[in-house]
Amino acid sequence: MKLFWKIFYSTMIVSVSCFSIGSYILIDSAFQDSIKREATSVFEENDILRYSLQKELREASVSDFYFADEKNKESASNEELLITVASSLTIYESGGELTFRISNQDGDIVYDNFNEDLSNDAVTQVSNQSKGYQVKNVNGKYFLHAMTPLQLHGDLFYIENFREISDIFASKNDQWTMYMYITLLMIGIGAIVMLVTAWLLTKPIYKLSKATKQIAKGNFEERTIVSSYVEVEELSRNFNFMAEHIEEMISQLKEANQRQETFIGSISHELKTPLTTMIGYADMLRSKKLDSEQTFMAANYIFQEGKRIEELTMKLLDLLVLKKRDIETKPIKTTAFFSPLQQYMEPIFEKANIDFYVEAEEAMILIEPDLMRTVCTNLLDNARKAIDHDHGEITLHGFIHQNDYHIRICDNGKGIQAVEMGKITDAFYMVDQSRARVQGSVGLGLAICSEIIHLHKAELTFDSEFGKGTCVTVIIKGVKR
């Protein structure tokens, strides 16, 4: 069953049940209160009857009544006296003359001026010290039958009086009829209201379900409209957040897959080109008779391309190892770190007619020295390759900034165009393919640097202006002066 119908039926069942139970309790309690009020009134009338009979009996003389049978004298005298007194007793109330009946302890009627044929079977169930009442139906009329005991010279009699309460039962029936009409009306109105309410409640959920189906089909841009209901609003927001997260993850997976395909394609290209050339020269050496100069040229080219493939293989291994290892960092002084680096790079820059300046603020940094030296060496070598003119200049500046240590390497080379900035750390990517080939680059330097920086939980930023130069900054977290 759909949630819409579950909400509708459950709400209607609960509402009708609560209304029915409440109405039953209300009608029944009103009916019982009416019966109790009538019982109180009929007992008050019974008390008046008993008081009047007792008064008349005290005034009457038993000696006026004699019977031949001496054995039955007392009982006969009591009944005769009671009949005589009751016959002469007339009491009026607001509804007219008060009717009553007198029965003996065996339940036999002694006196009766009540016109209805109403049994007195309940008389024997009333003790001589208590009073009681019962409701009886006679020919479609309802009567309240009250009875109280009366002691007369040792004999027990019961005074019974009656009150018609058909109007109370009629009122109860009218209330039940009204209840049925109101219930039917409430069910009709409630059904309409609950249909609208259930539709409003389930509409956002239906839209949410529709959105999930769209996402399941691959439409990750699908979003839900945030509802005004707090719970559904929170659900919609969480769903949209999940959808955005899934879309982002799918996008990242696509990008990773694209990078992987590009990476594999680049490897294939980097291997295929030198291998094709090497095979061509090897075939020429094998199939043709060459002079010594041609033989040396072919062998030298095969050697150079072989070394390049070897370098490419080692770089790939380094990159693969870096992706699957953790490093152990240790504190090291910046002077101890930069001094060997400067000594190593100065001869290379002198040979390329490039001025090299080093200025480092003294501090204690937490790094893996060999890996971080690889980063700096690669960045400095890239700066050298970017300078294609005389009067080249490269600076290495180390300084503390906001509790971090910055290693900033700047050159006055040709710079990098803005569209190229997001790709420079990708494997095999080279800004100037032809120059990189001449200089022996395979395009893995910055990719390796990026992995090392990631292992150090550091940052690598680039700031370049095309035609003027580039600055690369390594930001190492945490520093001690």
From TrEMBL:
Gene3D superfamilies: 1.10.287.130, 6.10.340.10, Histidine kinase-like ATPase, C-terminal domain. Keywords: ATP-binding, Cell membrane, Kinase, Membrane, Nucleotide-binding, Phosphoprotein, Transferase, Transmembrane, Transmembrane helix, Two-component regulatory system. This is histidine kinase. The chain crosses the membrane at residues 7-27, 178-201. GO terms for cellular component: plasma membrane. Pfam families: HAMP, HATPase_c, HisKA. Residues 266-480 form the Histidine kinase domain. Its EC number is 2.7.13.3. Residues 199-251 form the HAMP domain. It is found in: Cell membrane. Its main location: membrane. InterPro entries: HAMP_dom, HATPase_C_sf, HATPase_dom, His_kinase_dom, HisK_dim/P_dom, HisK_dim/P_sf, HssS/ArlS-like, Sig_transdc_His_kin-like_C. It is a multi-pass membrane protein. The keyword Transmembrane applies. Signal peptide: none annotated. It catalyses: ATP + protein L-histidine = ADP + protein N-phospho-L-histidine. PANTHER family: SENSOR HISTIDINE KINASE CPXA. The keyword Nucleotide-binding applies. It comes from Virgibacillus chiguensis. GO terms for molecular function: ATP binding; phosphorelay sensor kinase activity.
